[in-house]
Amino acid sequence: MKRDNMENTVQKKIAAIHDLSGYGRCSLTVALPVLSAMGHQCCPVPTAILSNHTEFPSFTFDDFTPKLAGYTDEWVGLGLTFDGIVTGFLSSAEQISVVAGIIGKLKTEKTEVIVDPVLGDGGKLYPTCTEELCEEMKTLVGMADITLPNVTEACLLTGTPYKERGWTRKELTDMAVKLRLMGAKSVVVTGVREGVFIANAVLARGSSEAAFIRMKRTGQTRPGTGDVFSSVLAGAVLNGETLTGAARLAAGFVRDCIACSDELGIPLLNGVCFERLLWKLARR
Ligand code: PXL
Hints:
CATH superfamily: Ribokinase
Structural class: alpha/beta
Largest sheet: 9 strands, mixed
Strand order of the largest sheet: 3-2-1-4-5-8-9-10-11
Number of domains: 1
CATH class: Alpha Beta
Bound molecules: 3-hydroxy-5-(hydroxymethyl)-2-methylisonicotinaldehyde
Helix content: 25-40%
């Protein structure tokens, strides 16, 4: 057995393909601490370096695309294999084919590929996300063992008109089925408003019916909660949890983070103070 593979039997190794935003709690600044707390070794692949996330009125943005192939080729040279590969915010349509190549290089038949198709929220695209990026994102969704779009992203990917509320379970299941037809094995549609609840539709591999997980809304929508959700879900799946169990853990954790952030008066744009609650995820 290769040395690296032996290491994987004692601790899961996850490549986290996200941007590094210095301020605002999203992407790598969420994935690294969350996956570490859950007992995994998280290896960052930075897609871009930003001063802060793009929901602030201004930000600096340095694309890392030209460096990505060389960076990950070094990992191939070291014989690294990964139990999980998670993807999040990507810089450009062009970067997606590079990321698809990286997944192809780093994945084995046992690797869990988790694609968060970060495109927008509240019915709107994020400022750096273009129509072409949305189109290309479908390729990555097709490579996913699990994809977890929010409702806005599920609409953009499936060509469904967006609405803030009033989703029926059938409409949500239909969107999840369409995403599965694109090639994703399992789908979780996150952040669906249902009155005083937030629901998540979980369509697991091979299942014809979605499970719905509902949590009471405890506060306002905040940036970065999708990244907290995807990191907790990835960490839990790699700890052997079922997809529905992992989605329940992630939804409950996000709910608690929102409540805690409101209680502490954290400004909305600063995301959620997940740091205070990481202990809930900790694994010895
Ligand atoms: O949380 C999604 C996200 C990730 N990365 C960057 C973002 C956003 C959402 O605004 O701007 C840079």
